[in-house]
Design brief:
- With 296 residues, the chain is α+β, with helices and mostly antiparallel strands.
- 51% of the residues lie in helices and 20% in strands.
- The strands form 3 sheets. Strands 6, 7, 8 and 9 form a 4-stranded antiparallel β-sheet that branches. It has a 3-stranded antiparallel β-sheet with strand order 3-2-5, with helices on one face. Strands 1-4 form a two-stranded antiparallel ribbon.
- β2 and β3 form a beta hairpin.
- The longest helix is centred in the last third of the chain and has 73 residues, at 165-237.
- The termini are far apart.
Length: 296
Amino acid sequence: MVAAVGSLCFFTVDSADYAIVTEFGKPTQVITAPGLGFKHPLQSVRTFDHRLFIYAAPPSEFLTLEKTPVVASGTILWRVADPKRYFETVVDRRTAESRLGDILSAELGAAIGNNRLVAFVSMDAAAYRADAIVAEIARRCDAVALRDYGIGVLDVQLRGFDFPKQNRSRLYARMKSERGRISMLYRSEGEEAGLKVRAAAEEQKARILARAIEFSQQRRGEGDGEAARIYANALSRAPEFYAFLRAMEASRNFARKSTTMVLPADSPLFGVLLDSDYFNGGAPGSDGIRGDLPRQ
């Protein structure tokens, strides 16, 4: 008898549950801590799992701000936050997730309708705002679900975002055309930048070559002057020797192997071949004056 009464008056609450004690359907106690609880024999106990749940809402079709049709779906991470409110409004998980689906659909539709397509699908970091929009959807869903159903929404994720099948080919063609226009713009900007770089390089090349030519001509002039000075100095010291060298260089220019030459008796070359004393002032001739040396 005592055991029967004890079973009617005492109950345990698991660490993963919330418990509500009801009397004729009305809640009288809300127990959120695990342990042993007490109730009157005529009262009942209802438990609710307060662990995290994941609800994947089905996809729905929406219109963006520029009236582009899209199909979007989301996932909700939720738990029981207010057991009493939850008991009074939804009672079980199936009903709770149905209510959450309605809230998510309303908030997701409002968010998509207030933003352009590029906020969700874009390669431009400045235009892409999907993360911020979804975070705002999660905040609004949590506020509505907690107020109306005692459900806490911890997170919302955008699970899918696409175009309706009947519109995909047209929209993809438009996106391809837009990307082509952007690529042409980038290509033209790149070509313009390349022309500027090449023009600057050619200008720098011309300046460097001009300086190099100027420097080389200056050094060549200095070298030619120095060579002329050395040559004049050497010629003044041994004029007969250099006359001999010039005669030999001249003969090398026009005399080849097996060449027959007819030379006048007063020719310097004839003097070289015939008389070793020619360049010492002994050149043959009627007046004894040495003939002009051939020049290159």
